[in-house]
Amino acid sequence: MAKSNLAALLKRLDEARTQHGSVSEQHYLQLLTSAGRIDFGADAQSLIRFHDVCLFLRAFPPGQRVLRLADRLLAEFEKRVKAALAAGADADDFAPEEVAGIAGTVVEATYSYPMMCWLVQHHTHAISVAWDQFERETQRASTWPRFFPLLEEDSFTEANVPYLEWLKTARGRQAELPWLVQCFQRLPISEKEKGELYDSLELLVRWDLSGSLASRTVARRSVRQFYFHRTPLIVRRQVSLADELSKPALPMKILSRKQAEKTLDTVKETLGVRYRELYGTSNSDPGWVVQCSVGRGVEIHLWGLTPETRHPLRAYLAGFTLKNGVPINYFEVLSLFDWLELGFNTFPAYRDGETAWIYAQTLRLLRQIYGVKVISVYPYQIGDGNEEAIDSGAFWFYRKLGFRSMNPGLEKLAQAEEKKVLADRAYRTSARTLRRLSKAHVVYEMPGADVGAWDGFAIRNIGFALQRRMAREFGGDVARMRKLCTEKIARQLNAEPEQMSANQQKAFADFAMAVSLDPALSRWSPEEKAGVLDVIAAKAGKMEQRYMRLLQKHQRLRKAILRLGSSVS
Q: What distance in Å separates the CA atoms of residue 295 and residue 98, rounded to the nearest whole number?
């Protein structure tokens, strides 16, 4: 097919997608069938475009026949990719983050130690180290002697050390990367220290997605009943957060350990092939994974962190969403008292697909679990250092859902922009103004919220206050400060940390340093002090839902933390 005809066909597919639900299934079938017969040659960009249309229609199908055809076309895509590369397509065209992970391509990324342990267990034969791009010679010289007897004779004094020869000789017939990861796993140090040592090498790993079910082309979970879009998609102006958040509780299911591990494997693959990795995927707790079907073929999964990897103060959740079994987005949640901060990221291929409604269901589920009343979005999500968010007008996505800027000056600017839009429907906010608007959090406050209470809060303000105290009173000795704060707060709360579990001791020490900044702690009532101990015990519990509920009941503690976090002196 002539290039102009191919472009015209892809344009018709894009136009049909913008009218999704109003376009007949037969029309889609005709367009997909025609595109499926095309030899794309070396035209990688058109091939990628067609790929993502097929993915969108697999997640948001107008009917059973389109769903089956999209599945068939996607199953054949690896052959098309290989053919395009053989015809001269540039492999780098398949590398950008927004398109990475297509079947038949290779993903190159630097993964964390926990992720590498998982990769060598589940994708051993598909991964290798890109030694041709390795630059951390000093780190290798100091790290590898732990695994290779007498390597110090070479690495400490010689030039041009043949490290790969050492590695090849030592591993024998074992695969290179799994053997190397096992060396780290055998070290007699903590998992955290192993991770720090491995991560210092910054190994670039090649993940070959040929024949892999992990590629974004074919990655999906089985579905009992599909949802077909025979009417127009729900758009942002049809979504009321207030209405959605006032609806009855959603049905939740806590997955069995086996189901949870399978779900978390899917998440690691989904993000890994897109160069992405969350703290919550590397340190996920399979002991508590929640599944929730919210309707319209949408299924949300949530999970927390293992007790030993939790944040000192904020509760953490991570999640991802399936649409008709296809992974379409992921998110991270940090919470404290009645406040919650959400980072919500929909993959590019699905951003035209009811994003506002799915976002509202995510908030609805999170409020149900934690009982929060204040939702904030951090600046990166709306464009601070994120040109993709600027280009998409992300600020207005949140603004039209009811969010306001937490900065008074920027809120006035947003209101001025709204007046310009009302006066001239053709008016569009400039990229320069959007960048200004992105410099502060935006917030949505529900009925009953303490309006404005969190506007000046930042968890790092507490951290900076601790650093100043450490420098002023402890000479920069963090271990001494941690010990003395723990002892002092234990006396004030009448607690015995030495009788606690290891995770409770860590939680106690973390809290001790934070609350030691409040000089009024010694004057708290016995009930308030006992409440702090309950909070700390819950922080180290099976999951952090009870921790959040106890925080919301402790108004004295909330007032103290809010004051400390809102101070910049």
A: 27
Residue that is last in its domain, among 91, 124, 153:
91
Residue 441's Cβ-count burial label (10 Å; 0-12, 13-18, 19+) is buried
- Strand, coil or helix: 125: helix
Which of 385, 420, 445 is the endpoint of a domain?
445
Q: If the chain, 569 residues long, is cut into consecutive pieces of 10 residues, what is the mean pLDDT of each piece? A: 75 88 90 92 95 96 96 96 96 95 96 96 95 89 93 88 93 93 95 94 96 96 94 94 95 96 96 94 94 97 94 96 97 97 95 95 96 96 94 94 96 96 92 96 96 94 95 95 95 92 93 92 94 95 94 96 81
* Residue 411 and residue 476 share a domain: no
Q: Does 213 map to a domain?
A: no
Structural domain for 115, as ranges = 106-208
Distance (Å, rounded) from C-alpha 335 to C-alpha 341?
A: 6
Spell out the alpha helix ranges (H) of 278-374. 279-282, 355-370
Q: Is there a domain that residue 228 lies in?
A: no
Same domain, 433 and 464: no
Q: Return d(Cα 311, Cα 510) in angstroms, integer.
A: 9
Q: Of 250, 332, 326, give the one whose Cα is nearest residue 295.
A: 250
Distance (Å, rounded) from C-alpha 320 to C-alpha 304?
Answer: 12
Task: Identify the pLDDT of residue 338.
Answer: 97
Number of domains into which the chain is organized: 4
- pLDDT in the model for residue 276: 93
Q: How many angstroms separate the CA atoms of 176 and 192, rounded?
A: 23
Contacts of 156 (CB under 8 A, 6+ apart): 141, 145
**Its pTM surpasses 0.85:** yes
Angle at 64 between CA 60 and CA 69, to 5 degrees: 85
CB-CB contact of 547 with 503 (8 Å): no
> Encoding tokens for residue 235?
């758009």
Are residues 379 and 475 located together in one domain of the fold? no
Residue 247's nearest CA partner among 404, 360, 337, 344 is 360
Q: Kindly state whether residue 301 falls inside one of the protein's structural domains.
A: yes
Instruction: Tell me the CA distances in angstroms from 189 to 183, 283, 306, 407, 498, one per residue in order.
Output: 12, 18, 19, 46, 22
Based on the domain organization, do 441 and 463 belong to the same domain?
no
Assess whether 435 and 541 both reside in one domain: no
Note whether residue 44 is domain-resident. Answer: yes
pLDDT at 569: 44
